[in-house]
Specification:
By secondary structure, the chain is mainly alpha-helical. It has a domain of 37 residues: Histone, subunit A. It is built from four helices and two strands, in the order αααββα. α1 crosses α2. The radius of gyration is 28 Å and the shape is flat.
């Protein structure tokens, strides 16, 4: 890659690079693109596309209904409560509510 191409890529990435950094990036990006060119020489006609190189699977438990904790148990350590709810400081002004 030449310096003008690196400047364009840096602008797209909103990167403010010095002249010295542009030279380093030109060298590094050229090496990366050279490696990609090398990979494109491989015959991948019979290679199945994959999302991950290892045989991973979903490890989440089944979503099953079960009883919830009672409200009193949930709120027993709450620093502040308002009826059956956690009381938290307001983060919006009343004026903000009127505009929505």
């Amino acid at each position: 890659m030449d310096i003008d191409q690196v400047k364009k890529v840096a602008k797209l990435g909103r990167l403010d690079l010095t002249d010295a950094e542009l030279g380093v990036m030109a060298t590094q990006l050229s090496a990366i693109l050279g490696y990609v060119d090398q990979l494109q020489e491989l015959n991948t006609d019979n290679v199945e596309p994959m999302a991950h190189p290892l045989p991973v699977q979903n490890v989440f438990r089944a979503d099953e209904l079960r009883p919830s904790l009672p409200v009193g148990e949930v709120l027993k350590n709450a620093p502040s409560r308002l009826g059956d709810f956690f009381a938290v400081p307001a983060i919006l002004d009343a004026a903000d509510d009127a505009s929505h």
